[in-house]
Amino acid sequence: MDKELKSFEDIRQITDAGKEYWLARDLQKTLGYDKWENFSKVIDRAMLACDTSGFDVKDHFPYVRKMVEMPTKPRKGMEKIGFPDVGKTKRIIDYQLSRYACYLIVQNGDPRKEQIALGQTYFAIQTYRQELNDKYNQLAEDKKRLLLRGDIKQMNQLLAEAAKGAGIISNEEYAVFQNRGYQGLYGGLSVADIHYKKELDEKDKILDFMGSEEMIANLFRISQTQSKITRESIINKELASYAHFTVGKEVREAIMRLGGVMPEDLPTPEKGIIELEKEAIKKLKEKNKEIMTDE
Questions:
Q1: Which of 190, 191, 256, 266 lies at a C-alpha separation of 20 to 30 Å from 200?
Q2: What's residue 49's pLDDT?
Q3: Residue 133 to residue 211: CA distance in whole angstroms
């Protein structure tokens, strides 16, 4: 096993009952996150994905209270005002993560981080994927949307990297690139046209106001465009934009052949993903805090 992959094994712990787990604060360091505030947001998304997939969050993300020693000297930049907590102990919150929880965390982390890619290799066990697939059709529509939006965010980050490699650098160039993909999938409709048709505010993201069927079509558009640009080593921004258009058009034609509804004709949900996420994460935190253990 590679040294990098072995590090995930090194921080694995075993309970007295023989159950394996990883502490979130250990995993944070291994995955290259300097600040707990940033990593905790990834955990929130992973918890939401766990709940959305039909699993009990408290079984995979139980809270753990623990005591830690504060630094023995003031942090950098605080020398003049001192550091009153020097030498004291502080109670902090951690998570005792299952392997499945770790899997969801690396799936919701920043895919540009090398450590995240390594974590995905380590934790991505096919049985978990199968469990997700088996449960998907049993999910309510809002939970399907939340699950798919997470996958789309991941793939859009990878698509952005592929576009950058093809010479698409500025925000204006990327907007053109994205517009061509939508035009291919939506029968010539531009981003502005789709916003108007869905009656969205200027600040709203189109992907946040799609039902699960429309999101699946866009996920396929995004993932296949990223694969095409990478596979064909496209290094020209005009060719990359054209590739995005042709992939979108091919997805549209596939939907048409299958007798499906065109994406622009699918209903627009009343609630956006951001509102759904806030509501779901709030409920999860309230539910999960009911059960806490001391380490």
A1: 256
A2: 87
A3: 18
**Nearest alpha-carbon partner for 46 in 62, 64, 26, 61:** 61
Tell me how far apart the alpha carbons of residues 160 and 169 are, in angstroms, rounded to a whole number.
9
167 — alpha (psi -120 to 50), left (phi > 0) or beta? left
Per-residue pLDDT at 135: 67
Asked if 185 and 251 count as a contact pair (C-beta separation under 8 A), the reply is yes
Q: What is the CA radius of gyration of the chain?
A: 22
Which structure tokens are listed for 19? 């159950």
Query: Which pairs with CB-CB distance under 8 Å and at least 24 residues apart come from 154-157?
Result: 154/107, 154/108, 154/111, 155/219, 155/222, 155/223, 155/226, 156/207, 156/222, 157/110, 157/111, 157/112
Read off the pLDDT of residues 164-181 as tens digits, 9 standing for 90 and up. Answer: 999 999 999 999 999 999
Residue 293 three-state SS: strand
Nearest Cα to 41, choosing from 278, 272, 275?
A: 278
> What's the pLDDT tens digit per position in 190-227?
999 999 999 999 899 999 999 999 999 999 999 999 98
Nearest to 229 by CA among 162, 160, 161: 162
Tell me what pLDDT residue 137 has.
72
In angstroms, rounded to a whole number, what is the distance separating the alpha carbons of residues 183 and 190?
5
* Residue 6 pLDDT: 53
Alpha-helical runs (H) found in the chain: 3-10, 24-30, 36-52, 57-60, 99-108, 114-123, 126-136, 141-165, 171-185, 191-198, 212-231, 237-257, 273-288
d(CA 102, CA 263): 34
Q: Is the dihedral of CA 168, 172, 175, 179 positive or negative?
A: negative
Spans of the chain, pLDDT less than 50? 1-5, 78-79, 81-83, 125-127
Residue 128: what residue type? Y
